[in-house]
Amino acid sequence: MDKSFTDTFLPLTSISDGQGNQVASDVFAFCVQIVNICLIGDPNQLSKGWVLVDAGMPGSSEAIRRAAEERYGPNTPPQAIILTHGHFDHVGAIEDLLKMWDVPVYAHELELPYLTGISNYPPGDSRVDGGLVSELSPLFPNHGINLGTRVHKLPHDGSVPGLPDWRWVHTPGHTPGHISLFRIKDKVLVAGDAFVTVKQESLYKVITQEQEISGPPKYFTTDWNAAKESVRKLEALHPSAAVTGHGTPMSGSELEQSLSMLAEQFDGIAVPEHGRFVHS
Questions:
Q1: What is the dihedral of CA 16, 144, 171, 149, to 10 degrees?
Q2: pLDDT for 107-132, tens place per residue?
Q3: What range does the record give for the signal peptide (predicted)?
Q4: What's the rounded Cα separation, in Å, for the pair 133 and 125?
Q5: What is the dihedral of CA 233, 241, 56, 146, to 10 degrees?
C-alpha cells in the first residue's frame, strides 16, 4: 500500500469507530474507522447463519472478527460475504478475512473485473468540491484486488445467497457494479455508497460523523447520471431504515424526507461543480 496514504489517512478514525447500531433484530451496522460494515443474521437463531456485507478498511480484519464473535460467538463464520462494490474501504480486510473464514464472496458481475485482478478503478478526483478528503483522494488505493475463484457473481434473479428474505438492487454510478440490499417485509435498506449520511468529502464531518443526507462520495463516483437514477430507484422503495457505507444509520420520517429531497434535488446536493466525470 502507498506509504503516503498510510501516513496521512489510515490513522484517522471517526467518533463512531468501533461502535455498532442495531437497525433491526438481525441487522447490525458496525463502524470500522470511517466505513460501515453490516452483519445480518439473528444471534438468537444461529442455525440460520449470518452474512457479512462489505469488508471495511485495510488492516481491520481483527476488528471485524471481534465484532462478529461478540455478536455470534467464536467459531461462527458467516455463510457468505456480500460486497456492495470493490473500493478499498469496502474490501480492505477481505483477503485477511478469507484466511480466517473459508466462505464464498459475492458481487455484481460488473464489479468482478475489479475483484479478480483485471481492472483498476480511476484514481480519486481532487478536483471535486467538498473538502480535504477530496483533496487527499488521489492518495487512496485505486487498484483492484484478485480474489480468484473465491468471488462469484450474484444470481441474476436478484436473490442474495444466505439471505432468503433479501434482494439485491443494481445501483450503479459510484461504480459500475455497485449494489444495494433491500428486505421487502420491513423495508430495511443496506445502501452501500449509493448515497451516504455524512458529507464524506469533508474531513471534519467524517471525524465528527455529523449526519446529513448526501450523494455517493464525489471523489470516486464516475457516472453521475447513473448515480442519480440509483438514488431515485432506492427512494421509490420507501425504505424504513437505511445503513449506508459512511455515516450513521437513518430511519423513519427523517430518512423519508431526506431521501426524497436528495432524489428531487440530486444535481444541486450531490453532483460537484467540477471534476473529471462531471459533464456540463
A1: -110
A2: 999 999 999 999 999 999 999 976 88
A3: none
A4: 10
A5: -30
Burial letters for 2-16: b for 16+ Cβ neighbours within 10 Å, e otherwise? eeebeeebbeeebeb
Q: Measured between alpha carbons, how far is residue 140 from residues 57, 118, 143 in Å?
A: 11, 19, 9
The dihedrals phi and psi of 212, each to the nearest 5 degrees, come to -160, 145
pLDDT tens per residue across span 3-54:
444 444 445 565 566 678 899 999 999 999 889 999 999 999 999 999 999 9
Q: How far is 247 from 99, CA to CA, in rounded Å?
A: 29
Cell numbers found for residue 213: 443526507
The two beta strands, 241-244 and 51-53, are unpaired
Q: What is the pLDDT of residue 204?
A: 64
Amino acid, res. 151: V
User: Region 225-240: what's the mean pLDDT?
Assistant: 98
168-212 residue pLDDT tens: 999 999 999 999 999 999 999 999 999 999 888 777 677 777 788
Contact 219, 124 (CB under 8 A): yes
Which domains are assigned to the chain? 3-269 (3.60.15.10)
Whole-prediction pTM value?
Answer: 0.93
Please give the pLDDT value at position 205: 73
